[in-house]
Amino acid sequence: MEANAGLGIRANVLAMSPYVPGKPIEDVRRELGLERVVKLASNENPFGPSPLAVAAVREAAANMHLYPDGSSRELREAICAKFGVGEENVILGNGSDEIIHLLGVMFLDGDDDELMMGDPGFSRYDASAFLAASRLKKVPLDAEYRHDLSRMAAEVTEATRLIFVANPNNPTGTIVRRTEFERFLDALPPHVLVVLDEAYGEFAAHIEDYPTSLDYVREGRNVVGLRTFSKAYGLAGLRIGFGFAPPAVTDAFHRAREPFNVNSLAQAAAVAALQDDAHVAKTAAANREGVARLNAIFRSVGAVPVESFANFAYADLGYDAGPVFQALMQRGIIVRAGAHVGHPHCLRVSVGTPEEIDAFEAAFREVAAEKRG
């Protein structure tokens, strides 16, 4: 009999699959005996954080023996000033992952409640439903790998409490537009809260009809917007996310969150990062060039890329992407295969530096030629 088998761990927890991050560079280097490894699997900012954020962390490090400001006062004020919202609309978390988790804690209560999401979508939405032992309804993306909002609205029931819409979506990078999103909101009953996950929003902000949660929160809609400092701001290692919410949601969030859920180094770095618009603009511009280049590489070997507005490219190779993923790994290039999200023919590649994309292109063309040969 397995040790500790009688502890009574809840069945809904045991039904979950642990989150599997992109394979660490050091693991690949050690396992395969490689000197150079390029990681294009985790949608990180290849250009790093703002120098202002690095300097702020160095200064704040001297006080790491002290508990952080539990209210994150300076950061909350910086967010309010930057985005033109009141403090009653701002939530902060240990990454936006924590906010996703706590929204499930706040709104889901067993089998009578339901969380809805697109399929495929970010796996931590699934986790919120599992941890609450609530229903999980996954609505397939449409033929263009976009959220099928009309179908999602049609499948709402009295049990539906939360609907997550990632815009841009992960793993596909696709977006929904303002008119269709507002039509979707108008079709929903008042007991439904829509969580508009804008983790990659800075990369789509140049699109004229790209909807933003800020507008809907200001209007008093049942919408929560999620943002992160992990992507465009380049602070993934510090784990800090934020969001915009109606005052009642903000109040409940503060009741549910941990007392010191955002560490002091993350707070200092985020305040500084918000001041460096040039770094974010440079990152976004370089990202558009990187996505275009990755798409061109995919097309050149007969793959079909999706129109991605995130910091990665997503393409249908037309055949099993698993062996391609493995062959690239053997050459020191870490990417993501789509089998784990139900797209076995797809490959997701994060935008890297020009040199990293060079390395991917050389390895990918070699693997594709072997496949054709």
Task: Explain what this protein looks like in three dimensions.
- With 373 residues, the chain is an alpha/beta fold.
- It folds into two domains: 22-48 and 278-372, Alpha-Beta Complex (Aspartate Aminotransferase, domain 1); 51-273, 3-Layer(aba) Sandwich (Aspartate Aminotransferase, domain 2), CATH 3.40.640.
- The protein is 40% helix and 15% strand.
- The chain has 14 helices and 13 strands.
- Strands 2-8-7-6-5-3-4 form a seven-stranded mixed beta sheet, with helices on both faces. Strands 9-10-13-12 form a four-stranded antiparallel beta sheet.
- Helix 8 links the parallel strand 5 and strand 6.
- The model has no long low-confidence stretch (mean pLDDT 95).
